[in-house]
Amino acid sequence: MPATRSRRHALQLAASALLIGLGLTACGGGGSSDSSSGGSTDYSAYGWSNVTALKIVDTTVGTGASATTGSKATVNYTLYLYDVRVSDTKGTKIDAGTGFQFTLGANQVISGFDTGVNGMKVGGSRTVTIPASLAYGSTGQGSVPANAALVFDITLTAVN
Q1: What gap in Å lies between CA 149 and CA 66, rounded to an integer?
Q2: Of 25, 94, 106, 134, which is the most buried if we count CB atoms within 10 A?
Q3: What are phi and psi of 85, to 5 degrees?
Q4: DSSP letters of 28-78?
Q5: Residue 125 and residue 141: Cα distance in Å, rounded?
Q6: Of 157, 147, 122, 151, which is closest to residue 21 (Cα–Cα)?
Q7: pTM tops 0.85
Q8: Among 49, 6, 16, 56, which residue's Cα sits nearest to residue 149?
């Protein structure tokens, strides 16, 4: 299915962007200007700087096989920008996917997503809050702005 391949490719590119973003963060590079509007957007009200560590909350504990490093996981997910002004911190919806497959620990997705899925059991659901340092860093990616904290709702549907 082309849409699935596109999402897979985008998440694979995101892993590369993360490495570049972390390198820029370490040397003070990168920026937060929004080139689509021709100016800079102030995201300080979103509270991204307050998200400094990965946060995992199991909403449903699965009963099937566990996702571990090296296993191929299949997930359904929804991605939101973290927004402290919203009661559940799920701000603007950025993306969603069903049947997305990746290999845990193979640097195919951003590290916060990989860590967030690791240890889940099939049938389980989690909300994973990811700081920018474990996401797209100071460069951003596509519709994710630079330095954005993210919230993923993830359901593990299969492990191979």
Answers
A1: 27
A2: 134
A3: -75, -10
A4: T----EETTTTEE---GGG-GGG--S-EEEEEE---SPBP-TTPEEEEEEE
A5: 25
A6: 147
A7: no
A8: 49
Structure confidence by residue, pLDDT tens digits, 113-136: 999 999 999 999 999 999 999 999
Q: What pLDDT, on a 0 to 100 scale, did the predictor assign at position 153?
A: 98
Q: How far is CA 115 from the centre of its chain?
A: 10
- Where residue 108 falls (left for φ over 0; alpha for ψ -120 to 50; beta otherwise) is alpha
- The single-letter code of the amino acid at 135 is A
Question: What's the rounded Cα separation, in Å, for the pair 160 and 91?
Answer: 33
Q: Which amino acid is residue 66, in one-letter code?
A: S
Strands 72-82 and 150-159, sheet pairing: antiparallel
Amino acid at 120: M
CB 128 within 8 A of CB 143: no
For the chain, the domains span 2-30+43-159
Cα dihedral value 129, 135, 140, 141, nearest 10 = -100
pLDDT tier at 5 (50, 70, 90 boundaries)?
very low
